[in-house]
Amino acid sequence: MKIFLNSVIVFISTCTTIYSQTDVTAPVKPSGFKSISYELHIDLIWEANTEGDLAGYKIYRYDGTDYRYYTSVVSGKNYISLFSGNVGVSGKYKLSAYDFAGNESLLTDSVMTLTSIMSDDEFLDMTQRATFRYFWDYSDPNSGLARERYPNDPACAIGGTGFGIMAMLVGIERNYISREQGIQRLLKILDFLINKADKFHGAFPHWINGTTGKVIPFGSNDNGGDIVETSYLIQGLLTARQYFNLDNLIEKSLRDKINYVWENVEWDWYQRSPYSDYLYWNWSPDFGWAVNVKVQGWNETLITYLLAIASPTHPIPAELYYGGFAGSPDYKNYNSYYGYRLYVGKSYAGPLFFTHYSFLGFDPHNYRDKFTNYFEHNRNAALVHKAYCTQNTLNFNGYGENCWGLTASYSIPGVGYSAHEPVFNDNGTIAPTAAISSIAYTPQESIEVIKHLYRTYKNKIWWDYGFKDAFNLTYSSKGINGEWFSDGYLAIDQGPIIVMIENYRTQLLWNNFMKNPEIEAALFAMGFSRDTLTAVNDAEIVPEEYKLFDNYPNPFNFSTTIEYMIPSSASLTMLRNLRDNSVDNKVVGNETQGVKIMVYDILGREISTLLNMEQKPGKYKVLFDASSFGGDGLPSGVYIYKFQSGKFVQSKKMVLLK
Predict the structure, then answer these.
(1) Average confidence (pLDDT) over 564-587
(2) φ, ψ dihedrals at 144, nearest 5°
(3) CA angle (493, 499, 306) in 5-degree steps
(4) CA separation for the pair 271, 83 (Å, rounded)
């Protein structure tokens, strides 16, 4: 007994001694401390410390005599955005790291900041960098998948993860992360998808638990596979498969894992029956086809049919594109709204996410089906939204030429989430993703929205992950008019922002997705054809003057589109429908004119005659493909394109960046 008590005393004494020992080891000084100054705020960024007992970081600001403690950042976050709200605000900052025992590292060297007026490109850089954080810093720590929403949602989104994978490629190109970091994150995601995630005939659920891999039900009968969300994931994975193209073991392993996921999706299972003309959205092992929703356009699911037809292992018949997706009698539209023709879908274009989700990877520039060139349709849809908000017949606060775009997003309290659209579901809620993600179709119009929202609403609309999901300036509660700004973010709204900005700037995601050999073959099987010269005179009023537009995109990689207008000397009769503001154009006279478009290098040497033909009055576009000039194509550089018709001659510059 005495021996036992002595042992206990020794044990307690030892534990007390260990417990009472003081941790005196400070964290190492943070490295890589730098600043980025924007117009109304600054970012302070550093490399994360790796100590296990790290509590966070302290920011010190120079007050004119010394560096004083300013604010703290918790561990797990290696950046902070500080909003001044004004131009011309300067500052100097230092940083330290501290642990749970209160030990603090030495201060870093100082960084200087100065807010100043920004260029359009700087606004795009700012928006992409902040939006990238949603998918990199806020991703699920166990699986690497994108979380469905911020804040306070443990569910991971399969479709949002596909968007996030594409965002990671942007992050590598923009030097937010290294190529190796991107590879390691994608391998983590793939290992989780292959080895842990629930799958239902190869398809993934809409929501999934990032720790267990188990399905999180999306609805009462929906605890199985979601073929549409799966298609968004595959779109991202196939884009990454082409991007990570180096001949080394790690990138080959990554491509093999992507192929495994891609080839195991049983798209034909979601046809439900070999006699069905449709894909079906959901299947559950518990409830079967109880949800019973056909995947049918016009909506966000064109990519689902494209990938299902392109599948190398479980394809569906190509006839299902026209028979299923585009088989509805009201698929075709061809009416004009505010002077812009919509070729497919409902009146006034519906929510704009229809023009985003399927086109993050699928570049619609140079293809057309029997209805339309979808780049042209999507651009007109965005312009209809802009015109609707500019006219603002319902008198919502804030709507205007630089504040437009309705789509599925958070909505005002009491509504929650809603697919907003002009006329039919509009409560005054604007979602920044609607106009910003349309930037590939409407570059200048979308950039003006970015600048307007940031400069006008400042940190009401801007936070760590970029533009907040939605806002409503006409919101009223208990009879008091006011304003509402969402405090949240959604993966499926943030993803199109960073991806479509990059498609506008460099076509990065478009180029890589379209390199997949399965894609163009599937498009041709579906009934698409190449569309290198497209008359678009029925999208707008027949012009009354010659005009050569700036090529888009510019700078470009491989291909760019040149657009021009040929006037008519005939009279125009415009029949306006006062009820829906549509415009019908009737042209009297169809005289043709000679049109010639030439391309020269910067020294004036002729490179190509793109066009030399007679054309009727109207608006046209022609594709210039720099990769078609033998070998590796034309070198990077400045080129001149010249438009000549009759006595009219005009030239513009375009920049090829390979």
Answers:
(1) 45
(2) 85, -5
(3) 90
(4) 51
Number of domains comprising the chain: 3
Which residues neighbour 505 within 8 Å (Cβ) at sequence distance 6 or greater?
124, 553, 555
- Asked whether residue 20 carries a pLDDT value surpassing 70, the answer given is no
Read off the pLDDT of each residue in 602-622 and give the average, rounded to a whole number: 84
Give me the CATH number covering residue 362: 1.50.10.140
The answer to whether the beta carbons of residues 269 and 313 sit under 8 Å apart is: no
Do 75 and 175 fall within a single domain? no
Cα 274 to Cα 272: distance, rounded to the nearest angstrom = 7
Per-residue pLDDT tens digits for 216-230: 999 999 999 999 999
CA distance 406 to 399: 11
Residues 155-175 have pLDDT tens digits of 999 999 999 999 999 999 999
| Cα–Cα nearest to 357, from 433, 418, 414 | 433
Tell me how far apart the alpha carbons of residues 492 and 474 are, in angstroms, rounded to a whole number: 25
Other C-beta atoms within 10 Å of 19: how many?
7
* CB half-sphere exposure, 82, CA atoms < 13 A: 23
Residues 151 and 71 in one domain: no
Q: Please state, in angstroms and rounded to a whole number, the distance separating the CA atoms of residues 585 and 457.
A: 40
Contacts 24+ apart (CB under 8 A), 392-395: 394/426, 394/428
For 216, the enclosing helix (H) or strand (E) is strand 215-216
Taking a C-beta distance cutoff of 8 angstroms, is the pair 143, 189 a contact? yes
Per-residue model confidence (pLDDT) at position 14: 44
Summarize the confidence of residues 363-381 as an average pLDDT. 95
End of a domain among 102, 117, 132?
A: 117
Contact status, residue 137 vs residue 77, Cβ threshold 8 Å: yes
CB 219 within 8 A of CB 262: no
Residue 430 maps to a domain: yes
Among 517, 549, 573, which residue terminates a domain? 517
Q: Are 358 and 295 in contact (CB under 8 A)?
A: no
0.90 surpassed by pTM: no
Q: Compute the average pLDDT of residues 381-396.
A: 97
User: Reduced to 3 states, what is the DSSP secondary structure of residue 479?
Assistant: coil
Position of tokens 């267990």? 212
Beta bridge partners of 400: 403
Given the structure tokens 């030097």, which residue do they identify?
A: 175
Q: Are residues 229 and 80 in the same domain?
A: no
Percentage above 70 pLDDT, the chain: 91
Range of the domain at 602: 533-656
Q: Is the pLDDT of residue 253 over 50?
A: yes
pLDDT in tens, 504-524: 999 999 999 999 999 999 999
Cβ-proximal residues to 503 (8 Å cutoff; 6+ apart), any chain? 360, 363, 440, 509, 510, 553
